[in-house]
Structure formats: C-alpha cells, structure tokens
Amino acid sequence: MFENLSERLQAVMGKLTGRGVLSEADVDAAMREVRMALLEADVNLGTVKEFVARVRERSVGQDVMKSLTPGQMVVKIVLEELTALMGRGESRLVFSGRIPGVVMLVGLQGSGKTTAAAKLANLLRKQGRSPLLVACDVYRPAAIDQLESLGKQLGVPVYRGEGTDAVAIARAGVQHAVSTMRDTVIVDTAGRLHIDEEMMAEAAAIRTAVHPDQVLMVIDAMTGQDAVNAAAAFAQTVDFDGVIVTKLDGDARGGAALSVRAVTGKPIMFAGVGEKLDALEPFHPERMAKRILGMGDVVTLIEKAQDAFDTSQATDLEDRLRSGVFTLDDFLAQLQQVKKMGSLGDILKMIPGANKLPKDAEIDEGALARTEAIIQSMTRKERAKPSIINGARRERIAAGAGVRVFDVNQVLKQFAQTQKLLKQVQTSQKGGKRRRFGMPGLPGGL
Amino acid sequence: MATPWYKRLGDGLSRTRGALQGHLNVLLRRGPDVDAVFWEELEDALIQADIGVVATTELVGRLRDAAAREALPDAAAVLDRLAAEIAAEARVPGDDPFASGPATVLVVGVNGTGKTTSVGKLAANAVAEGRRVVIGSADTFRAAAIEQLRVWAERAAVPVVERAHGADPGAVVYDTLAEASERGADLVLIDTAGRLHTSTDLMAELVKVQRVARRESAHPVRTVLVMDATTGQNGLLQAREFDRALGLDAIVLTKLDGTAKGGIVVAVARELGIPVVRIGVGEGLEDLAPFDADDFAAAVVGRGD
User: Fold this and answer.
1) What is d(CA B86, CA A411) in angstroms, rounded to the nearest whole number?
2) Taking Cα atoms as reference points, which of B73, B28, A263, A223 lies closest to residue B42?
3) Which of B287, B230, B302 is closest to B262 using CA atoms?
4) Are residues B49 and B195 in the same domain?
5) How far is it, in rounded angstroms, from Cα A383 to Cα A331?
6) Are both B61 and B116 inside the same structural domain?
7) How crowded is the C-beta side of A96, counted as CA atoms within 13 Å?
8) Collapsing DSSP states into helix, strand and coil, what is residue A41?
C-alpha cells in the first residue's frame, strides 16, 4: 500500500521551498502520484479522473507559497479539493417533526445494516428519542433474531412481524410505534444486490409504505470500484438521503465513501468504528479526506485526548505540581487517563507517519496494564513516598502485581525520570504564563 | 456443474442481463484498432475490476510488449491474450481443501463477507457428494450467528454443534471435533466470527481456535478465507494478515453474482499464492461453484457471454 501522499509528492517534486510557480512538468509528476494514491484507496476511477483534472487545473501556474515546498503546495490543493468533494461539516439526520419519525436502512448483503440499525437506535436514544427497531429482513436466516438480540442488549424494543411480507411488516412496525408511544422507528431491511430488480422493487415499496423521514444507505468501507454501481442503483430505484460507512475501524482507506458522495451527491452521515454498539460516530469529511490520503487523523487524536482528560482532575494535578508534589498516585491517574483514549495501537494509528512503523513493531498493550498493576500493589505510604521502597517491598509488590522485580524497578525508574522532568519544566516556567498541563512520561516507550 | 456459473445467473432470476458484460465488451464494440485510446480504456477496465493499479500497470505493460512482439492482429486477439494472462495469474496450484480427502476446515474472514452462508452451501455440496459432514458454530460473538447457521445446517441436513452465545469458540471446536469423530465425519466445517484483520486480540483468538482444531482433529486442518468480491484493495491486506496469522490454504470468493468482478484475488494470488477454490453466486443452497480461472478471467475482460 502507498504511504503518505505528501511524502510521495515531496519525493517526486523536490524539497525546495518558494520556487515561484508550479510548472506543467511539476504538476504532471504530482498528478500521477495523486491518481495512484486515490486508486489504491479504492476511489472510483471516474471520480479520480475528474478530481485529478480539477486539481491539475488549479495547480498549474499556482504560486508556491513562501513557507511551502512545491510538494506541500500540491498536497494543500489536493486536501482542499478533496474536502470540498466530501462535503463540509457534519450532516445530521433531518426529521420532519411527524411522530413517529422513520429512518430506513438499505444496502448490499454484509455491509452491516443490522448492526448499524442497532447502533443508530442507541445513538438516537442518547439524544433523547425513544426508538423502535423494525425487523424487515425476512430472507436471511436469523436476521430478525439478530436484531432482536441486539435490541435486547440495548434495551430497545424490536418489532418482529408475522409472515414474510417485508412491506406489511414495515407498515405494521410503524403502527406498533404509534401504539407503544415510540417516537422514532428504525427499519432494518434485507441486504440486496443492486441488480436484483425484484428486491430493489421491494425496497422501494417499503419506502412508499412507511414514508421515511430519512433513508440511509449502508456501505462497507472496504468496498472497491463497485461501490458506485451499487450506490447509483440504490439512488435511482429507492433513493436515499445519506450514507453510513461501516467497518472504518480497520485499515481500509475508504475511498468508496468519497466515490459514493461524488457520484450520488449524498452526504456521509455516520461512520461505524467498532464492534461495540456505541461505535457509531458522526462523520467528519475533512478527516476522511486525510485518511484516504494516508495522512493520519490528528484531529480525532486530539479530540480523544480532550474527551479522556478530565479537566478538573488535570487542574487539580497542575496545582499539585506547582507546589512541587507528584506522587505515584498522580502517575497512576495519568496512566488511567491515557488508557481511556483507547488502545495504544489505536492511538498510534492516528498519528501521521505512524503507518511507516515496521509491521513487526508490535505495541506492548500490556505495558500500561502492568504499570497500573504495579502501582496498585503498593501501599498508600509507598505511593506517597517511593523512596521507602526497599528490596523486600519490591519483591512483595512484584508478587502482588504478578510481575518480575525488574518490572517494578522499571516503573520506579520511569516515575523518577518523570518527576525529574517535571521539576525542570517547573523551574523553567516559574513566573511564566499558566499553561494547561500535558501528558508527561508515558510508559511503554510512547 | 456443467454450465459455467456466469451462464446460470440469468436463469430464473430477474436480474439485469448484461450486468456481467464488462467494460471490455465496450472496448470491442469500438472496433478492432489497437491504438492509444484502446490501451487506456483497457487499463481503466482492469482498474474498475479491482485488479489494482500496480498489477494493472504490469499486466498492460506485458500485454503491450506481447502485442508488438507477436504482432497481435486486433483488439479481440489482445483481449483473448489478456484473458489468458489473467487466468494464468489466478490459477494457483494447491489442494482444494473440500475435495482432497477427509479434512477439518476453519472458515475465517472479515465481517459480512458471507462465512456462515458459505458454510451452509459447502455443507450441502459435500452431502450431495456423499460425504459425512459436521458443522461447528464457533461464531459465538455475533448476535444470532448460531441461529443463522442452524438454519443452514437444517437446509443441508447436517448436524451442527453449538454452545451458548458468548461461549469460548475454542470449546465449540473441541466439542465439534468430538462429535465429528463419534459420527465418523470426513468433513468438518467450522464457522468463525467475522473479525477485522487489524484487530490483534481477535486474530490471536483465532490462532488459538486453530491450535485447538489442530490438536483435536483426526483429519488435516485447513484454513479458508472467505472474501467478498466487492472488496477493493483492502482485500490484499486482509489476505496478508489472515495468512500471516493462520497460514491460509484457500479462498472462497463470494457475491460474484453482482457487478463486482473480484479482481483483487489476482493480486492475492500473485503475492501470496493462495488459490481460490469456490465462488458464491447467490443466496440459494446450490449457489456455490468451483472456481474456474478461465471463466473468471473471461468475466473480468467481459468475454464471458
């Protein structure tokens, strides 16, 4: 797979800064790389061609900004155009206000409709709605059981009708919502092939029967060039208002999302990012643009950090640091905050350039847990005053945490280093501005 | 299976005929000339079949050389040559795990590729061939996966071994193999939970499942990846990671009844040398066919009809 597009462009265009205007030759070389990168990300060929033509037109003769290299200049243009193509900002579900509001999900087999339906119910419930899931997949064995079981996990009611008429079930489902006072209906439909006329007609009939406020097409992020064929067919026969892209927690670049957006003009609304039922997020076009280009997702990383870090705790810690106190308890609190951000592997994936790490550079996910266990095996006294931890205490701690004494020593060493570092920061900042406290001394070599 | 699969597609199904006619038929319609535009369109068609940029560039490059060297007379000759090249790439030597004696087959893959459905079809197929089949339901994670497989087992009329939702998949394998040896089964199919190849924990779980199978199975254990034909370039990463963790013996390519060509398996064959042994072409019990490299290549270059 390709690496970072910006690096590839640097390589073909040279690293000189402020070289005047971009020449035809510069741009030609760059466009070959852009085309390749997009195709390797599974962006549809037609979309790629149009896109490259537009970027080429904008680039030739463009003044290279003083601070940028020609390669960076092209990356800037590519990113701007790609973001524009993906749509700006978040797209939200629009309800007409009629009760119950109805959302219908459609898509190919295996794209993840049933899971997405459950995740969406969960999300809408968090927003204060009371959803009802309606199981209209009468074809796939146990699809209805699957939805029912997911509903049970969430505590969201599931309507399963009688018989095998999906249209009738959908209609009865909406009625059921009315009589059970649910204000939102999510209709899960069977997976269907876009060239199966009978099945496409059924989806259109369900649409006509229940007048959904929103129809969403569910698309697998790993889909290749065929994504546009399916999306165009669904747009034509069933029509939809937005897209849910699933399985974005893998390493697929997800170019299909861009193609579908470009070909149908429909916004991507949600992204499925994990197996858990809360792993559905609003979709961010600019992040997707960067992902397609392999440029890392710094924005998400920063947001995760913001989410995970409890502000009051951080302020509290800051004050303590100011007074020169940093104990093993504080160290532990820091660790736990880092852990809240997700696995180290996940965090690493969001850092630009991290995709260049050798595949074998396995991340020691256990390191955090080990350090945590070690600190938790210490007495309160030891945590407050690590200097009292002698050989016998080390052995006891190691036994308690189920590690070797060596590991305990490592943690103590790390802690001492962090403490030292903090003292230095503190002295250098004395009298300076009050600054938000960061994340010092991560264990595990991060 | 005398009729090639792509010919059976139109039968009885109200599906748009010609969906399988590739872009390359359009290429032929524009006439016999082999000019610059022809080559460009040829390249486009291969990319649209998910063959991938790198493999396409190489294939087309080789073809251009051959066309010049051997003075291929017209577009039809070039396309036939291309089909032969693709067929040669896709034809990987290797045992068919479903047709080389008694075996325990672990069916693995990412979410939503059609593992459970494929297990059902494979079971029915084997039964029709007079084999004794036992199915193990080791997807204890996905809601109702067990129920889904149970339906398929009933359709295929084979016994299925299961445990409760959330049970250890390794334990299911253990039970399945015990049941299989009791019944004297000569083909054991084990359905596993879909997982993304990037999930270290879930891949490790699968390695453990495989270890249990190897320890308990009376027959050789084979591992088969189910890949969705609509998959793009990520398919290569999937195959690479599953192969690295488990050592793959074969691929079942599903959902070939749509408009996707499944071209990524060419890249997989070329890099990893894993043969495709079956293709899925519908939702029925009988919609599974042996993979034929020539048919596949014909479909990719749109010469199937």
Assistant:
1) 56
2) B28
3) B230
4) no
5) 9
6) no
7) 11
8) coil
Question: Residue B7: inside a domain, yes or no?
Answer: no
User: Does the pLDDT at position A188 exceed 60?
Assistant: yes
Position B18 pLDDT exceeds 50: no
Question: CB-based contact (8 Å) between A149 and chain B?
Answer: yes
Domain hosting B57: range is: 17-90
Do B47 and B143 fall into the same domain?
Answer: no
Sign of CA dihedral A422, A425, A431, A433: negative
Whether B109 and B189 map to the same domain: the answer is: yes
Least Cα separation, residue B217 to chain A (angstroms): 29
Write out the two tokens for B267. Answer: 């890249």
How far, in Å, CA of B269 to CA of B262, rounded? 12
How distant is the alpha carbon of residue A84 from its chain centre? 20
Q: Quick one: closest CA in A to B260, which residue?
A: A226
Instruction: Give CA–CA dist A263/A224, Å, rounded.
Output: 14
ipTM over 0.85? The verdict is yes
What's residue B172's pLDDT?
97
Q: What CATH architecture does domain A101-294 belong to?
A: 3-Layer(aba) Sandwich (3.40)
Task: Give CA–CA dist A133/A441, Å, rounded.
Answer: 47
Q: How far is B289 from chain A (nearest CA, A)?
A: 19
- The per-residue pLDDT for range A68-97, each reduced to its tens digit, is 778 778 888 888 888 888 887 788 999 999
According to the model, what pLDDT value does residue A431 have?
44
Confidence (pLDDT) at B24:
53
B120: closest chain A residue by CA: A141
CA neighbor of A132 nearest in space, from A58, A199, A182? A182
Q: What phi-psi label fits residue A44: left (phi over 0), alpha (psi between -120 and 50 degrees) or beta? A: beta
A302-429 folds as 434 Repressor (Amino-terminal Domain) (1.10.260)
Q: Does residue B59 have a pLDDT over 90? A: yes
Q: Nearest by CB to A40, which of B53, B143, B198? A: B53
Instruction: Give the predicted TM-score (pTM) of the model.
Output: 0.79
Q: Is residue B96 part of a domain?
A: no
- Mention the CATH class of domain A5-86: mainly alpha
* Bridge partner residues of A133 (DSSP): A158, A186
Instruction: Tell if the CB–CB gap between B53 and A39 is shorter than 8 Å.
Output: yes
Using DSSP, state whether B19 is helix, strand or coil.
Answer: coil
Q: Tell me how many domains chain B contains.
A: 2
Interchain CB distance below 8 Å, A223 and B145: no
Place of tokens 């974005």: A248
Q: Are residues B214 and B112 in the same domain?
A: yes
Assess whether the previous peptide bond of A100 is cis (omega < 30° from 0).
yes
Nearest residue, CB atoms, B112 vs list A111, A198, A227: A111
| Same domain, residue pair B125 and B256 | yes
The A residues from 280 to 339 touching B (CB cutoff 8 Å) are none
In terms of CA atoms, which chain B residue is nearest residue A253?
B234
CB contact (8 A) between residue B53 and residue A36: yes
Q: Are residues B181 and B55 in the same domain?
A: no
**DSSP secondary structure letter of residue A387:** G
Question: What confidence tier does A438 reach under pLDDT thresholds 50, 70, 90?
Answer: very low
Q: Which of residues 229-288 of A touch B (CB under 8 A)?
A: 229-230, 247, 249-253, 255-256, 275
Domain parsing of chain A, residue ranges: 5-86, 101-294, 302-429
